[in-house]
Specification:
By secondary structure, the protein is an alpha+beta fold. The chain is 15% helix and 37% strand. The protein has one domain. Keywords: Plasmid.
Length: 183
């Protein structure tokens, strides 16, 4: 009996190690700023009810793009009022800002409201020294280095002044398929 228990325990440990090593790029980590002098800047304006925002890094695998790293972007548990995040990111990498948020819509006039959970990936390739702005459901836009963004900045105003999405970009519809998930 001890032999069977030992073998079962070994199998559980081995299986867990294989799964975790294969899925390590799916486990979110806190973002660490890129320290190179060519760093690009990403400003993320997150509203309190906006859901979660994640920064994803991909590699081109020929026919598809494979996620290599996942970073969470969220306030600390001691500072939930923080709504503007400034990230220094490495230029030339295939990045996507993923937003997961809830939209409440009325099914028909005077009918009940329904909540929809939406997930969007907004791809871009940061360029050296450029500054980018992201707000939920607005996309990633390049903005001038001297343009002031605060927690009170109106995202509609920023997007109306800088309507062009960040360029260059990549095709986020061609994500690699894996056994453990869609990408």
């Amino acid at each position: 009996m001890p032999s069977l228990l030992n073998n079962s325990l070994s199998l559980v440990v081995l299986t867990s190690a294989l799964i975790l090593s294969g899925c390590s790029n799916l486990v979110p980590r806190l973002h660490q700023d890129y320290t190179g002098s060519d760093a690009a800047t990403l400003l993320i304006q997150q509203e309190e009810i906006a859901g979660s925002v994640t920064l994803l890094r991909y590699e081109n695998k020929g026919e598809c793009y494979d996620r290599t790293e996942t970073y969470t972007v969220k306030p600390s548990m001691f500072d939930t009022s923080r709504r503007v995040f400034i990230l220094k990111i490495q230029p030339g990498k295939l990045l996507a800002v993923q937003q997961i948020y809830t939209v409440r819509k009325q099914s028909f006039p005077l009918g009940p409201f329904t909540n929809y959970h939406l997930i969007k990936k907004l791809p871009f390739i940061p360029q050296p020294g450029k500054r980018y702005y992201f707000a939920v459901d607005r996309g990633v836009h390049e903005i001038p280095n001297d343009y002031l963004i605060t927690s009170n900045t109106d995202p509609k105003k920023v997007i109306s002044e800088f309507p062009q999405l960040a360029q260059p970009s990549w095709d986020a519809s061609k994500l690699c398929q894996h056994i453990y998930g869609n990408e």
